[in-house]
């Protein structure tokens, strides 16, 4: 219809699920917080523009999903630390067996002891919770070592890194 041609209309179920998954993934970033303000909607909710897309969202179910996602992340984070943690397989055989038996080559082939959790999630394109669950299982089974880097140590590590001086105009 005309609304769809102008960019408006209603979002497909697939788009809504993708948006929801992306939002839930953001909740797992280091330092993120989540606050829910009922009955606090922007003016655009009541008078949407022509280019607005309507997204049907069952807020009670969504809020419950957000809470469940954050609780699952807390369990994973206890094992793997945060986004600055790095990972290394205990042996080449452990890495090959994990890739062969567990799948997730888009995650596991990246592990080299240098990339952080944030890097692994970003480069693989896999949601953070899924990456974390895969890594946590391997850490629990002693196939993967984790080096948890607290935020203050991350700053010190960057300062000590042999990085080129920034180019100034």
How would you portray this structure in words?
- The protein is mainly alpha-helical and 169 residues long.
- It folds into two domains: 2-78, no CATH class; 81-160, Arc Repressor Mutant, subunit A (Orthogonal Bundle), CATH 1.10.10.
- The protein has nine helices and four strands; from the N terminus they run αβααβαβααααβα.
- It has helices spanning 2-5, 13-26, 43-46, 59-80, 92-102, 105-108, 117-124, 128-140, 151-160, and strands at 9-10, 53-54, 86-89, 144-147.
- The strands form two sheets. The chain has a two-stranded parallel sheet.
- The radius of gyration is 20 Å and the shape is elongated.
List the helices and strands and how they pair.
Elements: H1 2-5, E1 9-10, H2 13-26, H3 43-46, E2 53-54, H4 59-80, E3 86-89, H5 92-102, H6 105-108, H7 117-124, H8 128-140, E4 144-147, H9 151-160
Overall 3D form = elongated
Strand order of the biggest β-sheet? 1-2
Briefly note the CATH topology name of the largest domain.
Arc Repressor Mutant, subunit A
Percent of residues in helices comes to 40-55%
Structural class by SSE content: mainly alpha
Number of helices: 9
Short structural description:
It is built from nine helices and four strands, in the order αβααβαβααααβα.
For this entry, give a set of tags.
mainly alpha, 2 domains, Arc Repressor Mutant, subunit A, 53% helix, disordered N terminus, two-stranded parallel sheet
């Amino acid at each position: 219809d005309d609304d769809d041609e102008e960019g408006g209309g209603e979002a497909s179920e697939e788009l809504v699920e993708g948006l929801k998954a992306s939002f839930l993934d953001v909740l797992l970033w280091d330092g993120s917080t989540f606050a829910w303000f009922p009955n606090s909607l922007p003016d655009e909710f009541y008078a949407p523009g022509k280019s607005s897309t309507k997204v049907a969202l069952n807020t009670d179910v969504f809020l419950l999903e957000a809470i469940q996602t954050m609780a699952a992340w807390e369990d994973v984070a206890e094992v793997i630390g945060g986004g600055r943690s790095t990972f290394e397989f205990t042996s080449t055989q452990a890495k090959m067996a994990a890739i062969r038996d567990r799948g997730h080559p888009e995650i596991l082939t990246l592990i080299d002891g240098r990339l952080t959790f944030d890097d692994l999630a970003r480069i693989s394109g896999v949601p953070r919770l899924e990456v974390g669950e895969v890594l946590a299982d391997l850490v629990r089974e002693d196939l993967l070592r984790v080096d948890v880097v607290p935020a203050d140590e991350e700053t010190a590590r960057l300062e000590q890194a042999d990085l080129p001086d920034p180019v100034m105009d």
